[in-house]
Each structure stands twice: as C-alpha cells, then as structure tokens.
Amino acid sequence: MTRRAFLGGSAGVLTLVACRTNMDTGASLNISAIPDQDQEKLNRLYGAVADRLAAATGHAVRYRTVTDYTAVVRAFEVGDVQVAWMGGLTGVQARNRVPGATAIAQRDIDADFHSVFIATRSSGLSSFDDISGLRQLAGHTFTFGSETSTSGRLMPQYFMDKGGLAVSELRGKPGFSGSHDATIEAVASRSFDAGVVNEQVWKSAVAAGKPNVGDVVVLWRTPGYADYHWLARPDLDSVTGAGTTQAITDLLLGLDAADPQDAEILELFGATRFIATKNSNYDQIEAVAREQGLLA
Questions:
Q1: How far apart are CA 281 and CA 106, in angstroms?
Q2: Is residue 63 part of a domain?
Q3: What is the CATH number of the domain that holds 182?
Q4: Where are the beta strands (DSSP E) in the chain?
Q5: Domain residues for 159?
Q6: Which of 42, 91, 103, 256 has fewest C-beta within 10 Å?
Q7: 145 and 73 inside one domain
Q8: 245 and 121: one domain?
Q9: How many angstroms separate the CA atoms of 256 and 244, rounded?
Q10: Average of per-residue pLDDT values in the chain
C-alpha cells in the first residue's frame, strides 16, 4: 500500500511504505522517523517496529518515510503521524508546535549521547583531547549532517562555539550532507576535510567495514547530551483508543535483548534496551536551539 502526500510548508515528501495490521480493524496508527541513516536500513527497522506495535496495540500500523528532518516535524504537527522517532532538536521543535506532546522512551545510549568530529587523513588534522583543539578546523572545509540534526549540527556547533571556533573561520561555507552516513562518505571521499557525525553511526560504519573508513581519523568525542527519543502526540489515545500510549510505552520499555525478535530491533537501533524519558531531559537542547535560532 503506497501513497504520497506533499506537506505544506515543507519540501519533504511523506510516503506510506508499510502497512502492518493485526486482527483488530480499528483506528490506524501512523509512525515516522527522522531519516538519519540509509533508507534501506530504516525501512527494515521501522517495518519490524510497525509489526510489533500492531501486535501490542491491536491497530493497523503504518510507517511513513520522509525525505528530510523538517518533514517529520511537520507531519507530527498536522497529525499525519501520531508517534515519531525524533532527534533531540526535532523533538523539541515538534513539542514547541504541539503543546502536550510527550517524550515517552529513549535508548539506553541516548541519555548520554555523543558526536565525533572526523577528518580525512590527507587533511593533516590530528586527534586532540581538549575542546580547544577544534581550532584546528579553521581554514579547512567542513560538513555537518542535516541542518536540524542534534548530533550532526546543533550540539557540534555549540561545542565549536565553546572551543573558540566560529563557523566563519572554516574554509568556505559548511556543507550539510543530510545524514550521518552521507557525512562519513563525504569525508572518506575527500569531498570535505572534516565533518561531524553521531557516535553510534560512526561505530556501526567501522564495525561494518564501510569503504574508505580506514582513511578517516576521529579527531574528538564531544561531552554527552540527551538525544533521540520516541515522541507521542497528546491526542494519541483519543484518535486511536484509550490505552494506546501506555501500550506503546510498555512495548518499548519491555524490549528484551534475550528475545530473538526483540534483539533484532534493538540491534538495528544500536541499543541494548529502551528506558523511560521525559520532556525536561531535553531542556539543554531547547536552550541551545534558541541560541542558534533553530526554534521558532
């Protein structure tokens, strides 16, 4: 089952790519996620998630892909999706537009998440231990990920500012690759001297032996911050039926790495379990977003 819908106010395309149904033919539940990695991997992950949510809630569950981060926020805002996997920044943006939206779960790694600055070895850049080492990037070409990525733009730019490096000191305007995978490829292929990615995607690329990763050096690992999480609309239960929010939360928090079916989902998420979270955990992200003018 497929259909396309162009979202007003966004260049992103919302596409229905999967429909998982249970025996119950009641209201449908639409989910989405920021496109932070290769779409083939995301389709496998959220197809599996849709199956589990259908079984847990008794509703048809549809996973809708989007072409960019902005489209996820817009789809959540207008109610095209009721539950979405957000980054720290996109979650804050969505809650700002939808009062009452609630962060319900995050991975174990998201309470203390990190970005890594990387560079092609040919750039001459070397690893450093102190934030002031970011000054090395002055005069070099550099790429972020998505413009509204927490780990690929927001927090890295925050640390660059703290380290005394202004974006204007880079060689030319910074790039925006669109995703962490694309950033790694852009640096590995020497399209940019350096870039920044989320640590989990970087580790996955290294473990998978992605082409040219050996030509890339990690410059610095940032301090931790809160990042990815599942966000639920305040009208989720009224749209899909009482108890849906709790059923989804229980499923996520109950995923067990000892269960083969659960282990597949957790592995694709790069986590060992999900833990409870709350909106206030992202206060730092909200404050930095306001400083950078990324929160209307």
A1: 11
A2: yes
A3: 3.40.190.10
A4: 3-6, 13-20, 29-33, 61-66, 83-86, 102-107, 115-120, 142-144, 175-176, 194-198, 216-221, 229-232, 274-276
A5: 114-221
A6: 256
A7: no
A8: no
A9: 20
A10: 91
